[in-house]
Task: inverse folding
C-alpha cells in the first residue's frame, strides 16, 4: 500500500511522527509512506487553498517534503506533483494535537486535508488525539492513537462500500482523552455540537498601545448530545464519523419548495 500523510500542526510536529508509525504499520513491508506537510503550523485553516499566490515546497529527505501552504495544499502537491505518476492508495491526516470533534471539525486543517483528498477521489481519514486531565501531561501523548489506529483504519477500509459518488466519503476519527489501556472501544457516531462553548477573542495591547486580539477556544470538556462524537470521546471511546463535502441542508429542501 502507498500512503500519503500530512497534518496541520506542521512538518516537525510530534503527531506527524506518530502518524508515520501508524502509516508504516498499515503500508506493510512492501509499502511506501510519503509525507507532504506544511512547513509551518496551519491549525484552524480549514479547507483553505493557496489559490492567489504560489508556494515553495522542498524535499527534506527520502519521501519527505514540506510545503509553505495549507494541509489541503499539501494534498494537492502530493497528488499532482510528488506522486503524480504513482498515486497513493490512502491519505491520512494528523495525528492532530487536540480533538476535531463537534464544531472543531469545521475549522480543522486536519479535516481540510482529508476533505481535499476525498474531492480528488482518494480514500482519506483525519486522525486527532483528544486531550484531557488523564492524558494531557503524558510522556507519550499520542500513544492512544498510535496503538489503536492501525487496526481501526483497516476495519474502516474493509467496511467502506465501493462508490462513485461525486462527493466521496472521508472519515473523522477522534481518539479519547485517556491512556491506551483505558480505551473502551469504538463508536460510529454523528458530529456533535458543544452548546455554550465557542471560539471568541481576547483583547491585548502592545507596549506601544496598538490593539490586538487573540482567537480563544472554548471549553473542550463539554459533552455533546449522547451518541455524538465528543460525548463518546469523553466517555472513553474512539469516535468514527463518516463525512462528505456536500454542504446541502437536505432536511430543509422540502420545506423550501414553496418559494419556487
Result:
Amino acid at each position: 500500500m502507498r500512503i500519503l500523510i500530512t497534518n496541520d500542526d506542521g512538518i516537525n510536529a510530534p503527531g506527524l511522527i506518530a502518524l508515520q508509525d501508524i502509516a508504516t504499520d498499515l503500508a506493510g513491508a512492501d509499502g511506501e509512506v510519503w509525507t507532504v506537510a506544511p512547513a509551518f503550523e496551519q491549525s484552524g485553516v480549514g479547507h483553505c487553498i493557496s489559490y492567489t499566490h504560489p508556494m515553495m515546497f522542498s524535499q527534506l529527505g527520502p519521501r519527505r517534503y514540506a510545503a509553505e501552504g495549507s494541509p489541503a495544499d499539501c494534498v494537492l502537491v502530493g497528488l499532482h506533483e510528488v506522486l503524480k505518476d504513482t498515486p497513493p492508495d490512502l491519505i491520512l491526516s494528523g495525528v492532530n494535537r487536540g480533538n476535531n470533534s463537534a464544531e472543531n471539525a469545521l475549522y480543522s486543517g486536519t479535516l481540510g486535508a482529508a476533505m481535499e483528498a476525498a474531492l480528488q477521489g482518494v480514500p482519506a481519514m483525519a486522525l486527532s488525539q483528544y486531550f484531557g486531565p488523564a492524558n494531557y501531561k503524558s510522556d507519550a501523548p499520542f500513544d492512544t492513537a498510535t496503538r489503536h489506529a492501525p487496526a481501526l483504519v483497516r476495519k474502516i477500509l474493509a467496511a467502506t462500500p465501493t462508490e462513485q459518488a461525486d462527493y466521496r466519503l472521508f472519515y473523522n476519527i477522534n481518539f479519547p482523552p485517556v491512556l491506551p489501556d483505558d480505551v473502551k472501544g469504538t463508536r460510529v457516531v454523528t458530529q456533535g455540537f458543544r452548546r455554550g462553548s465557542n471560539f471568541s477573542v481576547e483583547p491585548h495591547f502592545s507596549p506601544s498601545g496598538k490593539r490586538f486580539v487573540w482567537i480563544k477556544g472554548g471549553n473542550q470538556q463539554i459533552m455533546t448530545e449522547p451518541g455524538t462524537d465528543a460525548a463518546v470521546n469523553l466517555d472513553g471511546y474512539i469516535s468514527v464519523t463518516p463525512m462528505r463535502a456536500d454542504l446541502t441542508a437536505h432536511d430543509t429542501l422540502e420545506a423550501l419548495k414553496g418559494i419556487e
User: Anything to note?
Assistant: The first helix runs from residue 14 to 27. The chain has five helices and eleven strands. The two ends are 49 Å apart (CA to CA).
